Amino acid sequence: MVFIKNINNITLLPLKKESNMKKLEVGQVLWGVKIKNRPKEASKSFTVTKIGRQYFYASDNLQYEHCTVRFRRQDWVQDESAIYPVEEWQLYESEKHYNEMIELGNKNKGLEAFFRQTGCKKLETVNEILDLIKEDQNDK
To answer: Measured between alpha carbons, how far is 86 from 100 in angstroms, rounded to an integer?
Structure first.
């Protein structure tokens, strides 16, 4: 269900369900972004090589086994306990999904700043926003 609703000149879109808990498959290509020590190559693709109950393994270079990295299944973040990581990676379903999450975060910050500074002047507007939030929560 896609809809756009304008409330006090703010366009509200329904939030998508978090899809990074999609079922993993060996051979699946995921998008990785560095979250620690970001210079140089800050993003690249990883291929899932092995899936366990709590962890899965992905490689950025399938030719070399030492390039395989262990990730937690619960949040798709590199597992720091496996080795002492010089860099740490967060995986996403795709580069597009990562960009959507960044845009969503920026829009959420904008909404938060709006409500912190001015808020809504009409009860009707607040009720409409709360209804949209309830719809979003029901979609999850």
So the answer is: 27
pLDDT (tens digit per residue) in 74-94: 999 988 776 655 678 889 999
E strands of the chain, at which residues? 5-7, 10-12, 29-36, 43-51, 55-59, 68-72, 88-92
Instruction: State pTM to two decimals.
Output: 0.66
The helices-and-strands tally (H runs, E runs) of the chain is 2, 7
Rounded CA-CA distance 98/94 in Å is 6
Q: How far apart are CA 95 and CA 45, in angstroms?
A: 9
The rounded distance, in Å, linking the Cα atoms of 16 and 21 is 13
What is the Cα–Cα distance from 23 to 20, expressed in whole angstroms? 9
* Single-letter amino acid, residue 26: V
Phi, psi of 137 (to 5 degrees): -65, -35
